[in-house]
Amino acid sequence: MSALLKQLVGPLFNSVASSYRGTVGLKLAKYGLRFDDLHDPLKDEDVAEALRRLPPDVVVARNCRLRRALDLSSKHEGLPKDLLAKQTPELSYLTEALEEVRAERRERAQLGTPAPYTRIYH
């Protein structure tokens, strides 16, 4: 039954997901953001560790995009049309490092050792 359901619903789900991703991509491009900019390092330790492993110029570019988006949003504006055409919200810079960090965390969990970058709250 599950395979039949996947065959029937799969194409519809993929079409809706693609449409939604395109809509979100347009909204992100309006402010000059990328999908990976939406990851919050304060909420996810793995994201914080993945950002720490990235080259400094990539992190600086991310911070600049976030500041620009905050500024544009507070002014209720979007990017000018010439800059809007150059935006690439689908371009990923964090995914590979994040997958690596999560794989390390799974491996450490299997071995029973804590991650060295785990936050401890007192």
From TrEMBL:
One of its GO terms (cellular component) is mitochondrial inner membrane. GO terms for biological process: mitochondrial electron transport, ubiquinol to cytochrome c. Its main location: mitochondrion. The keyword DNA repair does not apply. The keyword Cytoplasm does not apply. It is a peripheral membrane protein. Keywords: Electron transport, Membrane, Mitochondrion, Mitochondrion inner membrane, Respiratory chain, Transport. It is found in: Mitochondrion inner membrane. Gene3D superfamilies: Cytochrome b-c1 complex subunit 7. Pfam families: UCR_14kD. Belongs to the UQCRB/QCR7 family. This is Complex III subunit VII. It comes from Tetrabaena socialis.
